[in-house]
Amino acid sequence: MVITEILSRNACQFGDEISLIEINPELQDKHVVSWREFELIETNPAASFRREMTWQEFDDKANKVANLLLSKGIKKGDKVAILLMNCLEWLPIYFGILKTGAVAVPMNFRYASDEIKYCLELADATALVFGPEFVDRMEPISDKLPFISMYLFVGENCPAYAQSYEQLTAECSITEPKITFTEQDDAAIYFSSGTTGFPKAILHSHRSLLSACYTEQSHHQQTRNDNFLCIPPLYHTGAKMHWFGSFLSGSKAVLLRGVKPEWILKAVSEEQATIVWLLVPWVQDILDAIESGEIKLKDYNLDQWRLMHIGAQPVPPSLIQRWKKHFPHHLYDTNYGLSESIGPGCVHLGMENIHKVGAIGKSGYGWEAMIIDEEGHLVPKGNVGELIVKGPGVMNCYYKDPESTAAVLKNGWLLTGDMARMDEDGFIYLVDRKKDVIISGGENLYPVQIEDFLHRHDDIKDVAVIGLPDQRLGEIAAAIVELKPESPCTEKDVIEFCSALPRYKRPRKIIFDMVPRNPTGKIEKPRLREKYCMGSVVALQTEN
User: What is the dihedral of CA 503, 508, 514, 517, to 10 degrees?
Assistant: First the structure.
């Protein structure tokens, strides 16, 4: 079985039922009517703020995309890139590519022109599907990509070098193409987050994609009655692989184009969402809005919301304790994964284990996990080592990079680069990225532990801890602290708060600044190091 067969099955069994809904609240905010009332105002020019699609329409559109690509010479094994914001067209295009036997190559919507060019070259892409948000970034490079045989444009005012997606697919057949491929065939290339420079291309098979469906559905028990609110970008494995559980169960999902707290709660309320995956900053924003009185929960219908889960980054336990005060009936789960492990699920907490908040959990469905030392031996429980995982979603390789592949794939095991420990009950706690560990005066400091502590401060909205060069200690821990709006908190207040930490773990420097995060919520520590470490290095050189 391959993942495209699930789409065909859903179309056959649930054809007239809604599969996907897209909501653009920026358009709706200009009006006072509700989203569903707004659908009935046919003459309103902003009526496209809410669009929906049945399972039959989803499958038909995917078949149209597949037949278009095949007619343009795309064949099995070719690479077709997607550069789109979340929209109703995204997933049918993705599945259309898969139906041709070609390899789908989703791309980060934050990429600058040089990054787009780099990734297209690295992936050996022969076609690109892109949207209007990227025209300005494509203009400088469109004549520098001779290997791209087709530009397919999704939107109005198609550039001269591209062809219109809407016009071309309108003429294509909805008949399923007869292309044969198996679980072992290449299916998709995802890019690493690029937080350490230009990203790596991560090649996955159809087996990986299919395994993500079963892992997610097993963890969160989606049924046809569920409705998944999807907010993170679809180019990333996190959002899409969580949606795969809804895909497998034939339940609908809402693509919300915006992250304001009131937009999220309105979508949950009016669309009757039952499952919402959030990133830490969005949870913080929702809680801050509730606690400031900006948002009143009584204004929303949220009784059906059964599960809130978080992934993509360490979760401060204090944050979940705050959440449960306002949403005591919610099930909660956290998920750990990497793009190299087809996204979240290789380790997960489990909805029944909220008493272990702070842990990332145990091995996920179909997965194994261990913690090893530098020599590859298991470490005793309680000791820190590197987390390694093994399962059906491990990548094939870093595409065209055998050296990097060999460094992280050992006998079927994926070395994650994350430092972790396991407690006596077998629950795994993420300590930090291996490369982020700070060695200060011979002591290993794990920034996540310090960040979790600082998140307990009522005035701190976000925090990142990095190492700064120090002549005496080698490195010192510096805390970049983002305060809540209008907070009176001072450097002295933070230092006093940290007095509860062991002396060696206390940050030696407090810096008030914004904490940069990428679209999947991960702190962009290289940016912070570049900003603050350079000055420290210059100071050391001056002292010498």
Answer: -60
391: DSSP letter: S
Q: Count CB atoms within 10 A of the CB of residue 239.
A: 26
Query: pLDDT tens-digit profile of 343-375?
Result: 888 999 999 998 998 899 999 999 999 999 999
Separate counts of helices (H) and strands (E) for the chain: 17, 27
Residue from 55, 80, 462, 48 nearest 257 by CA: 48
Residues 6+ apart with CB under 8 A from 296: 290
CATH assignment at residue 449: 3.30.300.30
pTM for the complete prediction? 0.83
* Residue 71 is assigned to a structural domain of this protein: no
Cβ atoms within 10 Å, residue 382: 10
- Say how far apart CA 132 and CA 116 lie, in whole Å: 15
476 inside domain: yes
pLDDT digits (tens, 9 = 90+) for 255-296: 999 999 999 999 999 999 999 999 887 898 899 999 999 999
Confidence of residue 39 (pLDDT cuts 50, 70, 90): very low
The DSSP letter of residue 388 is: E
CA dihedral of residues 417, 423, 425, 426 (deg, nearest 10): 10
* Nearest Cα residue to 127 out of 153, 108, 89: 153
Q: Which of 476, 521, 478, 413 is nearest to 195 (CA)?
A: 521
Tell me which residue of 331, 339, 405, 392 sits closest to 364, measured CA to CA: 392
For residues 304 and 165, give the distance between their C-alpha atoms in angstroms, rounded to a whole number. 37
How distant is the alpha carbon of residue 25 from its chain centre?
21
Two tokens at 264?
């999220």
Cα 27 to Cα 217, 219, 257: the distances in Å are 33, 35, 10
**Rg for the chain (alpha carbons), in Å?**
24
User: Which of 9-13, 157-161, 313-317, 501-505 comes out lowest in average pLDDT?
Assistant: 313-317
Does 483 fall in a domain? yes
- Residue 138 dihedral angles phi and psi, to the nearest 5°: -80, -30
Domain of 471 in residue numbering reads as: 440-543
Paired sense of beta strands 331-338 and 307-311, if any:
parallel
Query: Which single residue is written with the structure tokens 């990225």?
Result: 433
φ, ψ for residue 246, nearest 5 deg: -70, -40
φ and ψ of 186, to 5 deg: -65, 140
Does residue 506 fall inside a structural domain?
yes
d(CA 450, CA 28): 41
3-state secondary structure of 45: coil
What's the residue count for the chain? Answer: 544
Q: Which of 334, 406, 413 is nearest to 369 (CA)?
A: 413
User: Which stretch of DSSP H or E encloses residue 510?
Assistant: strand 509-512
- How many distinct structural domains can be found in the chain? 1
